[in-house]
Design goal:
The chain is mainly alpha-helical. It is 64% helix and 0% strand. It has three helices and no strands. Helix 2 runs antiparallel to helix 3. The longest helix is centred in the middle third of the chain and has 23 residues. It is elongated and about 55 Å long.
């Protein structure tokens, strides 16, 4: 399965919620970093981490797809 096929498949509900949470975190961090007022360095550092985490969560959650086969992976149970 290539990347384009993966992004076209449906995403499980949990990861859809996580993706939306990641988008919100990324937007919050970006809003704080680009605020037209002077903010303390600690807030800017936290905003940077929030943006990075939000972007990572969004990317990983978007790449997760549902398994249509309905079969469980038995290789780990041996």
């Amino acid at each position: 399965m290539n990347l384009i096929e993966r992004y076209k498949k449906p995403t499980p509900k949990f990861f859809t919620v996580m993706r939306n949470l990641g988008i919100a975190l990324g937007a919050l961090g970006t809003a704080l970093l680009t605020a037209p007022v002077t903010l303390p360095a600690a807030i800017l550092a936290v905003a940077t981490y929030i943006t990075i985490v939000g972007t990572g969560v969004t990317a990983v959650s978007q790449a997760v797809v549902s398994d249509d086969s309905g079969e469980e992976n038995k290789s780990n149970q041996d």
